User: What shape does this take?
Amino acid sequence: MLLGKEIRLKRLLNKETGRLLAVAVDQATARGIFDELMPIGRKISEIVAGGPDAMTMHKGIAEMCFPQHAGKTALILKCSTFSPWQPNYDTWVADVEEGIRLGADAVSMGCIVGGDDQPEQLRNLGLISGQAAKHGIPMIAHIYPRGNLIPSEEKDHWKHVAYAVRAGAELGVDIVKTKYTGNPDTFRKVVEATPCKVVVAGGESGSRIEDYFQMAKDVIDAGGIGITFGRFVWSNSNPTAIVKALDHVIHRNGSVKEAVELYNELNQR
Assistant: This one.
């Protein structure tokens, strides 16, 4: 491994556990405007105060809102996005050189498999992962099996998730972010399908904070290295407390009950 990539991975992953607690605030272009993400600068500050290992965002938001947080948490530059009108197509919007200019510790790209445009999206991922490798930048891929060619009754099958994460490894990705399969047993099969590191997105895992803490714990138990949550963190009225509670599960091997108690305690201060 190139020294540059090794150094950046050490900054990206938790120094004590080698795991990852990341928070994404790249959703506005992909899903529309959220009241909870406004003002974005204040929301980023509240998240950083919780001590995440990294944050994922687009280049414009990074340049305008992240400078005051430099050195406090790692920056992951998002290099693609889908949209409310093209929910299954990630288009390229930034490149590795921009990540280097911004001081990013990693770059990330979305990729939807199982659809008519899978060939183009895999090609884009392969190209940017080659760029990242050349410059010693860790490559993260957000890969989900939700293309139009997958029958609706198979959308949640673990084999499609396993295919997605393996495709990332085949194209040189270092860390794959994907959907959780619902239980540790099937997710363990997903982790075993790829030699790269695996984290999960929050998605729609339930309305209770316990559900997300449980998912984080299950992912670690199944061999994943952590999470990259978005809406679950920033839609909460106290993102700082949510991040600290997730840290208790991911980096301190805390129980779900302990995480809930910690969140409630922090939320009452």
